[in-house]
Amino acid sequence: MNDLKELLERNKEWAEAHKTHDPEFFQALAKQQNPNYLWIGCSDSRVPATQLVGLRAGEMFVHRNVANVVVHTDFNCLSVLQYAVEVLGVTHIIVCGHYGCGGVKAAMENLQMGLIDNWLRHVQDVMIHYEHQLRDIDNEDKRLDRLCELNVIEQVLSVGRTTIVQSAWSRGQELAVHGWIYGISDGLLRDLDLSISNQVELSESARRHGRRG
């Protein structure tokens, strides 16, 4: 338990550093948050959302779960999404996975790990849908990385299909959903060339990936 004291000391150093750079930083931050982005990412401790893109506290709203999955019955994720879109008025939603994801790997190998197996069934659904594409990749690491990319693509489509995003588009709200993936081995984010900002783009992207819009 004494290890936690080190974290508290680091917090003091972090707070002092911010106040030295900007004496009014925390007073301004306490009054409101005004992020332009919602980040939906993996819980992996090696993928710190705001740090990857060089943003400060208050500049990005964040939701994270194992394997960055967006399920229409997950009220935790949907509540974050609704608050970000309808209250904070974000204009960009970034779904970001990462190469070598342990959750995706567990799903691909059908590992028996307990309760989380039920959650990872969603990733296995992605794997089944793209089975024809994945089976042509002989290298196991490359197959895993491709499944990580495909999982992001599917979650972007899933975000676009939510009633929250559909309603935002219907009322003309500016809102785009993007798919990115992060390389832990080199620290770089990669755009998966998937951005949707209306129902037409969602339908086109879904058809391109063999889905219904």
Strand fraction: 15-25%
Count all strands and give the number.
5
- Number of helical stretches of at least 4 residues: 10
**H/E series:** HHEHEHEHHHHHEEH
Could you explain how this protein is built, in words?
The protein is α/β, with parallel strands linked by helices. The protein folds into two domains: 1-31, no CATH class; 33-208, Carbonic anhydrase (Beta-carbonic Anhydrase, Chain A). The chain has helices at residues 3-21, 25-31, 49-52, 75-88, 102-108, 116-129, 131-134, 140-161, 163-170, 199-208, and strands at 37-42, 60-65, 92-98, 176-183, 188-196. Strand 4 (176-183) and strand 5 (188-196) form a beta hairpin. The mean pLDDT is 95.
What labels would you give this structure?
5 strands; alpha/beta; 17% strand; Beta-carbonic Anhydrase, Chain A; 213 residues; globular; 10 helices; single chain
At a glance:
The protein is of the alpha/beta class and about 210 residues long. About 50% of the residues lie in helices and about 15% in strands.
